[in-house]
Structures are given as C-alpha cells and as structure tokens.
Design brief:
The structure holds 2 protein chains of 2 kinds. Chain A starts with 7 loop residues before the first strand and ends with a helix. Mean pLDDT of chain A is 91; it is low at 1-6. Chain A is an alpha/beta fold. The longest helix of chain A has 16 residues, at 181-196. Chain A is globular, with a radius of gyration of 18 Å. Helix content of chain A is 35%, strand content 26%. Chain A contains 9 helices and 10 strands. Chain A has helices spanning 48-55, 85-90, 106-116, 122-135, 151-162, 181-196, 208-214, 232-237, 242-249, and strands at 8-19, 22-33, 37-42, 63-68, 71-73, 91-94, 169-173, 200-204, 217-222, 225-231. In chain A, α3 (106-116) crosses α4 and α3 (106-116) packs parallel to α5. In chain B, α5 (159-171) links the parallel β8 and β9. Chain B starts with 12 loop residues before the first helix and ends with a helix. The chains are: A alpha/beta, B alpha/beta. At the A-B interface, α2, β6, α3 and α5 of A face α15 and α16 of B.
Chain lengths: 250, 509
C-alpha cells in the first residue's frame, strides 16, 4: 500500500498515460517523502522513465493527478512553460545521457538557469555553482567542457545543474547504468548525503544491489502498474511479485 | 548589338520576308548537304535584334538582318554557303580569335583596341552616337556637359561606353553600363537614368517601343561597323574587303541597307572614302580615337584603380548581402521549426521557390519586374536579390544545425525552467551556430563569386569591370589574371578567418 503523509514531496495518484492504443502507465500511485531515496524499478518498458518525464511535465498524461509539494497537475497536454515556474523550482531532473549543454563549461551548465530562469545574480549563481561542484567532488573541473569530462564527472555536473536552484525533489533516470561498481558506491554516498539534507529522491535503476544498499524504499513497476513496493531490504530480499523476481534474476 | 526581346516589325516586311525565305533555303541546304566546300562560318548575336541580326519571328531557328545579308553576300562571293554561329556580343572578339567562326558581323564597332588586337575589315556602315533623353528634358540636356551629377546609361564594351568613361571626370556624370541595349531605355523612361548614349540605329529602334523619349539631333560622335577576324587571318580579311568594296560600287550594299531602313546621307560619303583608299592600304584609318592608343601594360595600369574600386564594390555587396542572408535565414529557419502551420507553410514555399529558380531571374524581377511598383536603386536591388536568395540556402543550413542539437539538451533546459525563447537563444542557437559555421563559410565564398551576376542589373563589380577592361584592350589574359588575383585576395583571408573561428569554437579551451 502507498504511504501518504503530509511530508510527501511527490504525490502521484492513479496516473494513467496512454500512447497510441497502449496504456504505458495504468493507474500508478506513488509518493516520495523528504529525506527519502525511493528506487523505481522494473523491467525495460515498464514505464519508469515515462513516469519521471510525466512528473517533470515533459509528457502530458491522461488520468490521475501529479502533485509536487502542493503544485498539482491534472490530466491534459503539457502546460505552457510560463505556468510551470513553480514546478521548476520544486523538482530537478538528471537525464540518463546527462544532456549537458555542450557549449558551456561545467560551471556554465550549473549557473545558466539560475541566472536566466530564476533571476539570481551572476555572482550568487557562480558561488552556489562552485560550491555544488565542490560538494559533489568535481570542483576542479569547473572550467572543463562536457566533452572533456569522464562519464562519472559528467553525471556529477548534471546533478549539480539540477540542484542549482535548490529543488527539494530530485528525479534521476538510470544514474547507475554507465558506472562501474566502485563509482556506483560513491554515487550512492552522494545520494545519501542529498537525502540527509532533506531532499526527496526518486531514482530509476536496474541495479538491485545498489537499490538494496542505498534506497529507503523500492517501487516495482510492471506493465504500467505498481507490482510491489515497500522497504528496500524487504522487497529485494523476499520478492512477492513475479516481476520483482525476474528483476532480481537479471 | 544585343538587345533582349527587341524585335523589328513593320516597313519593308515583304522584302525582308523574301530575303528570309531565301536564306532559310540556304541554311536548309547548308545543314543537309555535307558536300564541299566548307560552309562560311560567321558569328553574331541574335539577341541584338533587328536591323543587325534577329531570329525570324516566323521561324526562330533562322536569323535575318542586315548583318545576315552582308554575311550572305560575302559567303556568296567566296563561293561558300553562310553558316551562322550564335555568340554573345561581348564575346565576339575572343570567339573569333579562338576560331569559333571566321568573321564576326553584328554591329561590331571600329575601335582602336580592336584594330590593334584583331584583323578588321573596311567599314560598311557609319552610325552616329546620339543622346536619348526624356521628352520633357529636351531643352536642358543637349550635350555631355549638361549632365553634371546625372546618370547616363549605355552598353558596355562599346564606343559609347569609352566616350562616356573618358568624359566622366570632366563632365561630372555617372556612367551606368548595361549588358543589353533595351533596358537602358526602359530605365530612362522610368527616371533611373537621365540619358542614354548609343548608336542612332538602336536609339531609333528604342523610341518605337518606349514612349516619352526623344533623340537629341546633334550627334556626340560617329563610328563605323566593321567585320572582325582573327589577327592571323589578314589574307581572308583582304578578300572580304574586296567583296565589300565591290558591293559598295555596284549598289548591292546600298540595297541591303535600304532594305533594313538604315540608308542615310552618311553612307555614300563613307563608301566613297572607303573606295578612295587603295586595297593594298588595308584597313581604313581608325575611327576618331577616344584616347591615344597605348601599350597593353599602360592600359592595364590605367584600369587598375577602376578594378580596385570594383573589387571594393564586390566585397561590400557580398558582406552586406551575407549579413542579410544570415539574418533572414535565422528568421526562416526559426519560423520553420517553431512557427505555426501557416508560417511554416509560407516559409517552406519561400525557400523552395527561391532555391528552385535562377538567381538571375530573381534579380531581373526585383530590378525590372517590380519597377512599376517600387523603383529600387541598382545596388539595393542587387543586395536584396543576393541576400534574399542566399537566405533560403542559409535557412536550410540553420534548420539542419538547430535540429542537430540533441533533444535531451532541450528537455534538460526545459526542466531547468528556461523558456522556449531562452532555450533557442542560450542553448540551441549557440550550438547550431557553431555547426553552421563551416557550410556558412563555403556559402560566403560562393556569394562573393555569385555577386558577379548583379552586372545584369547595371552594378559594375569586379567581373563586369574586368570584362569591360578586356573588351577595351582586346585581350582576356591580363585582365583575367588581375581579376582572379583580386578574387583570391578577397576569398582566401575570408576562408582562413572562418577556419580559425571554427577551430576556436569547435574546441573551446
């Protein structure tokens, strides 16, 4: 059962999203609270990435509601960007490909939106950007361009960029996919420290060990529905649903 | 003399009809029979129209005109059949020298430079250089000295052009050169010019088609039409001279000139002067020289300032046109990516129409076609024509470059709260610009060279100035080399600059 508390940052209710004749998401309930890392798991095509994209209004949806710290959206196409300012301050997103701006340095990537979309001064954005890069262990790469960064460095810069305006909710799409085990561990530590600051994290992953080690809670999606959810230690050691078992076998 | 779309009609039609029919027979025979002797190849420009050489309105594959008949006369006397070779008026000298035909006959003028570089026949017609003005200006524009600060048009590569070029400094007027002899009169009627200086035959013909013009009675100078042969072909030239002399004595030439309504009091005087010369003397003394004939080297030197000025016009025109193309290209590309269906459809039609039609046609439409609605100055029309044409190509480059920026980056920018406009300006645009830089450089160099096309609407840029120069000294060797050197001087630093910009931006340090 879904836990709903007043402290929920992200609250997804009965989310339904149809593409063509297929319901990609078919009545999903999910919530993420402050200070919590929630791992969103499921086989490929189970709708994990789509759920993240709908949450940050890159996709419209067809049923249910999505609420992020009181900013609630109803079914329909993606609203104009001018009506999403409050959402943008509340939720940051880290893409699987990192999607860094190729023409800007690591620091430029972290300060662009703070200055142009959120009205911070150059100096303020720069100070915060440098501090973020420093805290994520890539302070020395501030003036490097994306093509000069390793995969792990690029991911940290992408996290810094998503945190530039200090959103309480951070969504991450497959952050472990391109990392070797050692780097997964250090990524996990970073995520834990972000949660410790009071942020809520929703992280899609295929990596059960990673989820078991670092996530507080696991939600397993199968065929557009929540198949199973609960504390990571329980769900991943004693899976009940066939989808979860398959996931652990892989 | 070339003239686009100008066709003689009217008086003397039946005589000409008979003549045309008989020539049709001759040509048909020439094309069917491969029997010896070899046909007599002569060159002319049918764009010049009547009374020189024109396509027969009833059978455009056949030419007729006084030069056609004179060619027939010469061929007949040599026991050969005439074969017409079409050649652009300004290329007659170069073409005869390289052996495309043996003699050029198409209102070819007797110029000192031509005499120096080629073998020239005795003159067969004397014309007057006359000023044509708007009827309302009849009283105030009578001589070249009346045109201070005014614009006088003429055909490039002619005696009239040389006259105007020589008198430009003293007279304080501007010379506008054309590639054809029809548009100057249209522009005169519309007020783009204040006078046209050309052969009286051409002026009289123009007055039949353009209303509101008048020819000033006092001629500025006189000149003669001759046949031009390759320099090494003096023997044939002497034989042709004999034929022409005989035709002057026995009235055949008079008959031809009368048939084409160009016989006047000056011709018998010319004939008697020619006949008074002994054949062994070769050519008649040249027409009044505009400036003393001098060596090719010193002539080249005299033309250098004009070439440099023309190069500056080429550079200025190319830079401004490219700026326009970039600005309009950005609007077109953005509109096609971000615009609504109507904007997208309109912009797509624009790009396809502009890319699918020749830029030459677009220049003509802008300058001449729209002149009843808006009378653009030549430079502005050239700038708009080239700029708007290249805008279509630039827009396709930008569209491709904009679409090459990854979708994920655009979505990332949205999740950060940037507006669509900010994303274009801060994320998509700067990256696309870098991708577009290399193809843009190529286009700029291409534009620099395409700018030579604007000479068709009277802008004298580098290539045009070179061809005027070449026609004047009767050789393409030196002018061609100078012109190529100037183009390289302009384009090499440009491509070098762009390459270094590209390097700097594609690998920022």
């Amino acid at each position: 059962m879904t836990l709903v508390t007043a402290a929920s940052l992200l609250d997804v209710r009965g989310l339904r999203l149809v593409r063509g004749a297929r319901a990609v998401l078919d009545g999903v309930d999910l919530s993420v609270r402050r200070g919590e890392i929630c791992a969103l798991m499921g086989l490929s095509g189970s709708g994990k990435t789509t759920l993240l994209r709908a949450a940050v209004a890159l996709e419209g949806f067809d049923g249910g509601t999505i609420s992020i710290e009181g900013f609630e959206r109803s079914p329909g196409p993606v609203p104009p960007e001018s009506r999403l300012k409050d959402l943008r301050r509340r939720a940051g997103m880290v893409f699987q490909s990192h999607a860094l701006f190729e023409h800007l340095t690591a620091l430029g990537n972290t300060t662009l939106a703070a200055v142009y979309a959120h009205g911070r001064s150059d100096a303020e954005a720069r100070t915060r950007g440098l501090a973020l890069l420093e805290s994520l262990g890539v302070g020395g790469r501030a003036s490097a361009y994306p093509r000069e960064l390793s995969g792990g460095e690029a991911q940290r810069v992408a996290i810094a960029r998503a945190l530039a305006v200090d959103p309480p909710l951070l969504l991450m799409d497959e952050p472990t996919a391109s990392l070797d085990p050692a780097r997964r561990g250090s990524l996990g530590e970073v995520l834990r420290s972000l949660a410790a600051e009071g942020r809520g994290l929703l992280v899609t992953t295929h990596d059960a060990d990673f989820a078991k080690t670092f996530a507080d809670r696991v939600v397993v999606l199968a065929e557009g529905r929540v198949a199973e959810e609960g504390p990571a230690s329980e769900v991943l050691t004693d899976p009940q649903h066939l989808a979860t078992k398959e996931l652990l076998r892989g | 003399m070339p003239g686009i779309g100008n066709r003689e009609t009217g008086i003397g039609r039946s005589a000409r009809l008979r003549r045309a029919l008989s020539l049709t027979g001759v040509f048909a025979f020439a094309s069917l029979a491969h029997a010896a002797p070899e046909p007599f190849r002569w060159g002319g420009d049918a764009e010049g129209g009547a009374p020189f050489v024109e396509a027969d309105p009833r059978d455009p594959s056949v030419v007729r005109g006084m030069d056609v008949e004179i060619a027939g006369l010469i061929a007949g006397a040599l026991g050969r059949t005439p074969l017409f070779v079409q050649v652009a008026f300004t290329s007659i000298d170069a073409s005869v020298e390289r052996g495309d035909f043996v003699v050029g006959l198409s209102g070819v003028e007797d110029l000192p430079a031509r005499r120096a570089a080629h073998a020239v026949t005795v003159p067969y017609f004397e014309f007057r250089e006359v000023l044509t003005v708007r009827a309302s200006d009849r009283g105030r524009f009578r001589a070249l000295s009346d045109f201070r600060g005014r614009r006088i048009g003429t055909l490039s590569g002619t005696l009239a052009y040389d006259l105007l070029a020589a008198g430009r400094a003293a007279g304080g007027f501007q010379v506008v050169s054309y590639d054809d002899d029809v548009h100057p009169y249209g522009d005169l009627a519309e007020g783009r010019l204040d006078a046209v200086l050309l052969d009286h035959i051409i002026a009289q013909r123009a007055l039949r088609h353009v209303a509101g013009l008048t020819i000033q009675p006092d001629a500025i100078a006189s000149g003669r039409y001759v046949g031009v042969l390759a320099k090494g072909n003096a023997a044939l030239r002497d034989r042709i001279d004999q034929v022409l002399r005989r035709a002057m004595s026995d009235g055949t030439l008079e008959g031809i000139l009368r048939r084409w309504n160009v016989w006047d009091i000056a011709q018998p005087k010319l004939f008697s002067r020619v006949l008074a010369q002994r054949p062994a003397d070769g050519a008649l003394a040249p027409a009044p020289a505009i400036r003393p004939a001098s060596s090719a080297g010193s002539r080249a030197l005299a033309y250098l300032p004009a070439l440099l000025r023309a190069a500056l016009i080429t550079l200025l025109l190319s830079c401004l046109a490219m700026a326009l193309a970039v600005a309009a290209g950005v609007v077109l590309a953005s509109g096609r990516i971000y615009g609504g269906p109507v904007v997208r459809a309109l912009f797509t039609v624009y790009v396809e129409v502009v890319r699918g039609t020749p830029v030459l046609l677009q220049l003509f439409v802008l300058y001449y076609g729209l002149s009843s609605v808006i009378r653009l100055p030549a430079f502005v029309a050239a700038l708009l024509g080239l700029g708007l044409n290249y805008a279509a190509y630039e827009s396709e480059i930008y569209r491709g470059a904009l679409e090459a920026v990854s979708r994920a980056q655009l979505e990332a920018a949205r999740t950060l709260g940037l507006s669509e406009w900010q994303i274009l300006r801060l994320v998509r645009g700067p990256q696309a610009f870098r991708l577009a830089l290399a193809p843009m450089t190529n286009d700029f160099v291409a534009l620099l060279k395409d700018s030579s096309l604007v000479s068709v609407i009277t802008v004298v840029e580098l290539t045009k100035q070179t061809s005027i120069f070449a026609a004047n000294i009767g050789s393409w060797v030196l002018p061609g080399a100078l012109c190529a050197a100037l183009y390289l001087l302009l384009s090499l630093p440009l491509s070098r600059l762009a390459r270094s910009l590209e390097r700097r931006w594609s690998a920022p340090s």
